[in-house]
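Troubleshooting entry. The earlier prediction with magnesium ion gave an output that would not parse, so I re-checked the input for stray whitespace and re-submitted. Clean input:
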Amino acid sequence: MEIITILDKKFEVFIDENEISNLISTIADEINNSNIENPLFIGIMNGSFLFCADLMRKINLKNSEVSFVKLSSYIGTKTSGIVNELIGINNISGKNVIVLEDIVDTGITLEKIITLLKKEDVNDIKIATLLFKPDSYKKDFKIDYIGKYIGNDFVVGYGLDYNELGRNLKHIYKLKN
Ligand code: IMP
Ligand code: MG
């Protein structure tokens, strides 16, 4: 199997492009069978850019909208501490949102995103993620659509990065021990 090097680390192929494509077809079938009306798909940047592009080509729900947001955290005033903000949201009230994530690990990022979306007075929020690390997950939000359950290995490729590198790789690789 192909071994690649990114910065100081070696990675081996873990989920090849054919398997990724099959995982996405399965998620798309489930979403297409869900009868969600006027869905607004929201891709979380940067990691989900390829997942969104490939998934959306397989979605056939009527009146589907697609948008992208980025979660940013900054230090607010001394009393408010760290403030989370979704950049790119505009008037989504009443929408049936489907959040598209590349990977859910501890679930901390997802919790922040859900909290911020709820403030926008949306009608419904569903979550789809390509990869899920169940042994690392610390929250109880239901994840509605999961491509593949994986162990706690660190993975890169297909949108996922190691220090911002590797997002363009067509396979998903895992850290080689
Ligand atoms: P969480 O908040 O712990 O669920 O982590 C979510 C974020 O951490 C993801 O959106 C990724 O950006 C990053 N992340 C978690 N696991 C991995 C991994 O194995 N490879 C690359 N990025 C990861
Ligand atoms: Mg990342």
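This one parsed fine. The helical segments are 17-32, 49-56, 108-119.
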